[in-house]
Design brief:
344 residues, alpha/beta, 2 domains, seven-stranded parallel β-sheet, six-stranded parallel β-sheet, 13 strands, 38% helix, globular, binds uridine-5'-diphosphate
Length: 344
């Protein structure tokens, strides 16, 4: 199949630091090529891929993040060539999804964000102007605010398991890995770590003004006495942190569409202690790859219990359910469905 994959333009594929979507697109592009498909990846020129790479920007324009002109130019570079492909799979965002109405090639758009709030409304509008657009969700929970949208398939994310080696030993610190934002809940991880008296390492992105504000208000005042902020970490640092942690704390308070950090942790053999929100119950098997609690008050108790989880089972759960081959199969099935719908 001739597949055009449209990545977000803001970070390289794969990313060097933060970047969940970029990792998923990298794994998907290489997996599709390995499965024999003819794949063209539209991404910044500093990307590394087994696919054919097409770029308007030599380096990812991260400093211009969110600029509509930059985003549209990148998306249009793909759409003006849509006729060369059997299917276009967009991961770049809503502006590109809206362009689906302008081309004859089937367009499959992966929804990477939550649909509660304004995004859900705009997706409804996009479906109105692009009636043949097919949507892919990352979890079934993600669809809940808008079950009426043109859903084509549910394709949970995958990670390249070789990049997250298993380590059977567990250390004695807790880990928080993720954006510094209220919904990801670094402050809830701090509170739980204090209650159980374990050290906590916090790693994550703090670049946007809101992330800085959150950090100053909720994290900085609580640092010290075993609570440490390491900044945004590279892939190698992240793996070492995951491999050495007793547990990864995932104390979210929002409708997380997927949550790659949970799978990365499982792959390294580290159980996840998470709050029951968003995709958490679809990713973590309670008692096997982690412990799910109803709210933040339950976090400390679960941390004390987490030693009963076998690191090998965490790894096995990641291999069984979140391997690239499974994700590639899911996507190819979705592309075929989109193409057959187009042929009717
Ligand atoms: N990440 C990273 N370094 C950091 C913080 C995060 O590499 O300092 C990675 C993290 O490991 C994951 C991604 O960024 O691969 C975040 O994806 P996730 O789906 O967990 O959350 P999102 O931020 O997309 O809501």
């Amino acid at each position: 199949m001739r597949v055009a994959l449209l990545a977000p333009v803001w970070f390289p594929v794969p990313p060097t630091g933060y970047g969940g979507i970029e990792w998923v697109v990298a794994v998907l592009a290489d997996g599709l090529v390995a499965a024999g498909h003819d794949v063209t990846l539209f991404a910044s020129g500093d990307s590394r891929t087994a696919a054919r790479l097409v770029s308007v920007y030599e380096r990812a324009p991260s400093e211009r993040i969110g600029t509509s002109l930059t985003e549209l130019r990148h998306a249009l570079t793909c759409f003006v060539r849509a006729g060369e492909f059997d299917v276009v799979n967009d991961h770049s965002g809503l502006p590109a999804a809206a362009l689906a109405g302008t081309v004859a090639t089937p367009v499959v758009h992966t929804v990477h964000g939550p649909l509660d709030g304004e995004a859900g409304v705009v997706y409804g509008q996009v479906a109105g102007v692009a009636p043949r657009l097919g949507l892919i969700s990352l979890s079934l929970n993600q669809r809940r605010p808008r079950p009426d949208l043109p859903w084509l398939a549910n394709c949970p994310n995958a990670i390249d398991l070789e990049h997250y080696p298993f380590d059977p030993g567990r250390g004695d610190y807790l880990l928080f890995l993720g954006r510094l934002s209220f919904e990801k809940g670094a402050h809830r991880a701090i509170e739980a770590a204090r209650r159980v008296g374990l050290p906590l390492k916090l790693a994550g992105k703090m670049r946007e003004p809101l992330e800085r504000e959150y950090f100053e208000a909720h994290v900085r005042p609580n640092l010290g006495r075993g609570i440490e902020y390491l900044g945004e970490v590279t892939h190698a640092e992240k793996v070492a942190l995951l491999q050495g942690a007793r547990a990864t704390i995932f104390p979210i308070s929002w409708e997380e569409p997927f949550g790659l950090v949970m799978v990365e942790s499982m792959a390294c053999g580290t159980p996840v202690v998470a709050t029951r929100r968003g995709a958490v119950p679809e990713v973590i098997e309670h008692g096997r790859s982690g412990l799910i609690v109803d709210d933040e008050a339950g976090l400390a108790g679960a941390i004390l219990e987490v030693r009963r989880i076998d690191p090998r089972e965490c790894r096995r759960a990641a291999e069984e359910r979140f391997a690239p081959a499974r994700m590639v199969r899911d996507y190819v099935a979705a592309y075929e469905l989109a193409c057959s719908a187009g042929a009717v």
